[in-house]
Amino acid sequence: MTSGVLPPPGLTLVAGFESTYVPAAGLDAFDLTLHTATWREDLDAVLTAGVRHLRYPLLWHRIESEPGVYDWREADAVLGHLRDRGAVPIVDLVHHTSYPDWLTDGFRGGDFGPAFVRYAEAVATRYPWLPAYTLFNEPFATLFLAGHEGLWPPYDKGDAGFARLLGSVLPALSRAAALWRELLPDAQHVWIDTAEHHTGVGPGADYAAVANDRRHIALDLALGHDLRLDRPYLRQLVEAGGEGLLTLEPLRVDVLGLDYYSHSEWFYDAEGGHAPSPGPVGLAEVIAQYGDRYGLPMMVSETNVRGLPSDRVSWLRYVMEQYEVALERGYPLHGLCWFPQVSSCDWDTLLALSRGRADPVGVVDLADDGTRTRTIFTEAWEAVASGATSADLPAYRFQSPCDEQLVGIAPATAHWPWRDPPPAEVVPPVRVDAPAAPPVAYAHLKEVPKTMASPDLVVISHLRWVWVWQRPQHLVSRLARARAAAGARTFFVEEPAPADVDRPTVRTEEVDGITRVWLEVPRTDDDAVHPSFDDPRARDYGRLLAPVLGYDGPDGAPDVWLYTPMGVDIARSVPGGRVVYDVMDDLASFRNAPRGLMLRQRNLLAKADVVFTGGRSLHRSVLDHRREGVHLFPSGVESDHYAGARALRGARERKVAGYVGVIDERLDLGLIADLAAQLPDWTLRIVGPVAKIDEADVPTAPNIEYLGLVRYNDLPEVMAGFDVALMPFALNEATRSISPTKTLEYLAAGLPVVSTRVPDVVADYATVVHLADDGAAFARACREVVEHDRTDRDALLEPLLALQEWDRIACAMAEHIEAAGGSTGRTKPAGEATG
């Protein structure tokens, strides 16, 4: 160990600050906790307490907000202050998803590795005096959540997804480590990751064995340590495409940081996984396992517990005591970090909901206005900074819910002098039990017959009924007609709409055989982004909706059909029958996707009675989370409607290549501009509304025409004016899972189609659609396919159209809903249906 860099073995406190950036929300923890403005006061409070060592992040997404352009002002100020005060920072270059927005696909993109290495070299060059560093915080945990569990961008899944992210990040991490070793030879590389332990019984024991092998995988691959293919998880990873990970250039680690929480230990049985484990082996044993495996100096680089200040005092006592036991056993431990110093935000949802809600875990608490609040835990932490041992700390009895969650550590703490928390610190638990019977207003539902053929239908959608006529309109209009024949109603519940109103007001409109419902909310200055169902102004949407729906019709509890997971909270206000989720898009990948969408989607997939998917790629992604009751129905076509375009088509002087659809981030605007330049003697006719992008970004040229939004009934006439139909989609996160409805519509109108290689188009229509990759290839294809004989194309198209008629699809979906259960008189809220 380099003298003066990390403390000698012993119990020395280390401070830490949370900084994670959430690309989808455009927010980081420094902004949410106001540390951006109060960093000097926060750091001085740590140093005044006598803590000299601290983990501190560098914000890559701010330092390099444009590729290759570095802004060091914030980092210079903070690191300069720490250096002047004699602090020992362990700088953290990438903390979870804290990377710049311009990276095309996050950790998975081909631009991540070169950009990361370039950034790492720039940091090392600018701050050659740094004593210690973490190049990439929690590589295993971060890439597992982002690449295996699909919880963080890029939302990859399974062992293959995990292998893809490891294959992108670890080689770059190895190159960056070599650079730092050369540029800062005296600085110490602190590798920090989760310290896990898994146990199980029955089939759970087998899974625990795999998980115990998996916990080491990132560090083993980086070090070239114990890469035997008979290891249970390493074998799985290699079989999933990770063979190239076996030959990485090994890097060097000076100190191993272990992040240990109560949920770091898992137990598995026939009912699944449980964390915290009811029988944890304890931190001292986990330290021993990692120490024996790697033989490296170590530190406990993170710990905390989500609880009241008195709970945190007792958890700190437990961790310190376990730390002291490990020291006595001879394991070299060089510091203990309670993380974070200031309570961070939104970790109760793993950052799925970026609401700025403080997480009660910090050394100092965070008030709603950002004020730092001292607690009895602050006092305990400062006592440890001054030399107190675990035995010097109070042993407060855990309060709810920690008393239940941490029951597993009771044997290890039976010798403690337990006492009640100070009276001022006691917070009585608030328990909310599900009602034993339906609310009085819905009591009549008890008398509804068990089997109902056609109950009312409540559709909850992120799309407006009166906007583009697409999958929801095609299906719901057909289902509405069928149910109306039996006396049932159909409601189409839309997202809130800003309006000149003083308070939220529900509006309705009868149109196309359904009742449109939307909530008008008071306008604000932030309405450039359309409000979602979780907008604070819409918190009473469910309550206001209930009188409109009524629930007193002859058909009892309605079926609830959702097009967006953001409608789950509204659905819970509907005492519904069957719950249907029609997954028509990967909404989480869209620009300005609502916060919390991923978490709600997982919940909805688990609880819906029936799930439909709108394309092959979507179907595969849904199957990662649910296997039963999932049915693939790619979008269809109303052939007779579009056939009229064939009769209307006539000769014209200039050829026309046309596009019909929404103009948003899914289109490759550069390709369209290039195509216009490549086809100066053609007209490019773009039909549809602009959404979620700046109209100034839409390409313009003398031969590009924009017709705006056109009614569905007028589309055949519009398409009659095309010679070639275009699908110039960008190949990005937003198009990875799309199955464009317009493919069959173009073909039914008798048009040749040129498309980029959207995965579902390639899979389903490669025989009838011409595929191209850029403007020049699109131009060549347009000139070629416009001369093709339509008869040959129609011969290939006929069986596809027969299978994909909207009438047929709607009928098949209705049959699946009926098969899901005829008992639609259930009185539990729709959001609580079981899958």
Description of the molecule:
The chain is of the alpha/beta class. The protein has three domains: 13-425, Glycosidases (TIM Barrel, Alpha-Beta Barrel), CATH 3.20.20.80; 440-636, Glycogen Phosphorylase B (Rossmann fold); 639-804, Glycogen Phosphorylase B (Rossmann fold), CATH 3.40.50.2000. Helix 20 packs across helix 23. The two termini are 56 Å apart. Residues 432-453 and 822-835 have low confidence and may be disordered. Keywords: Glycosyltransferase, Transferase.
Helix content: 25-40%
Distance between the termini: 56 Å
Architecture of the largest domain, according to CATH? Alpha-Beta Barrel
- What structural class do the secondary elements suggest? alpha/beta
The CATH topology of the largest domain comes to: TIM Barrel
Name of the CATH class of the largest domain: Alpha Beta
CATH superfamily of the largest domain: Glycosidases
Q: How confident is the prediction overall: mean pLDDT?
A: 88
As for the number of domains, it is 3
Please count the helical segments. Answer: 27
Keywords: Glycosyltransferase, Transferase
Protein name: Glycosyltransferase
EC number: 2.4.-.-
InterPro entries: GH, Glycosyl_Hydrolase_39
Compact description:
With 835 residues, the protein is α/β, with parallel strands linked by helices.
What does the secondary structure layout of this molecule look like, with pairings?
Layout: E1 13-16, E2 21-22, E3 27-28, H1 29-32, H2 35-48, E4 53-57, H3 60-63, H4 73-84, E5 88-92, H5 112-126, E6 132-134, H6 139-147, H7 158-183, E7 188-194, E8 197-200, H8 203-214, H9 217-223, H10 232-242, E9 255-259, E10 265-269, E11 272-274, H11 283-294, E12 298-302, H12 309-328, E13 333-337, E14 365-366, E15 372-373, H13 376-385, H14 402-405, E16 457-460, H15 471-484, E17 490-493, E18 497-499, E19 505-511, E20 514-522, H16 541-549, E21 559-562, H17 568-571, E22 579-583, H18 597-607, E23 610-613, H19 616-623, E24 630-632, H20 639-648, E25 655-660, H21 669-678, E26 682-687, E27 704-708, H22 715-720, E28 724-727, H23 742-748, E29 753-755, H24 759-765, E30 770-771, H25 775-785, H26 790-803, H27 806-819
Parallel strand pairs: 1-4, 1-13, 4-5, 5-6, 6-7, 7-9, 8-10, 9-12, 12-13, 16-17, 16-21, 17-20, 18-20, 21-22, 22-23, 23-24, 25-26, 25-28, 26-27, 28-29, 29-30
Antiparallel strand pairs: 2-3, 10-11, 14-15, 19-20
